[in-house]
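User: Second chain of the day. Same drill as before.
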Amino acid sequence: MKEFRKILEPLKRRILMSISRAVIETIKDDQGIQSMQASLLADEVQDDMERFQNYGLTSHPPKGSEGIAVFPGGDRSHGLLIVVDNRKYRLKGLQEGEVALYSDEGDYIKLKRGNQIEIVTHTLTVNATSAVNITTPSFNVTAPNSNFIGNVGIAGGLAMLNSNGGSGDINASGQVSDHTGSMDQMRGIYNGHNHSDPQGGTTGGPNQSM
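Assistant: Same format as last time:
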């Protein structure tokens, strides 16, 4: 039995040394694989530990984040970080099945129950070099001010629900109408109108037509 334990002891030690909790100290994020310095045991600090992330997703965790370090073959000279989390900033209170991306500043994108997606941030910027296409039966924007730089085309109707003012020119290739008639109708009335002549009969039409 003693000999058996002697044989197993190195294997046991390698197994125990093959995995460890880690606290992130510094991060290098300028290479193909992110590398970190991490504190492991009480007096053990590992440099240049490669952190493997899922393809298509990447992050730069804050200092003090926690992770799981693995050491292939129990060799502590070269460790790998396979997961990093941060209990201080992790988005909490998700319902079963919900998914979220978040930052330490409070920004998040949450895929919620009921087929809803919620985005919370200070400034949202979309850069699309070809087009932005949105297809939906209802599109609502709540903003005290909205600015459009460039041409705006509206294929359907446009309803003004409140009093509005504007500056600049308005050019229309079709009719411009209000609740009493179109500008074309008003132009026809003006061009064809006359007045009663005090001396009898009626006056002629306007000297200048619209």
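Helices lie at 2-16, 183-192.

User: Great, on to the next one.
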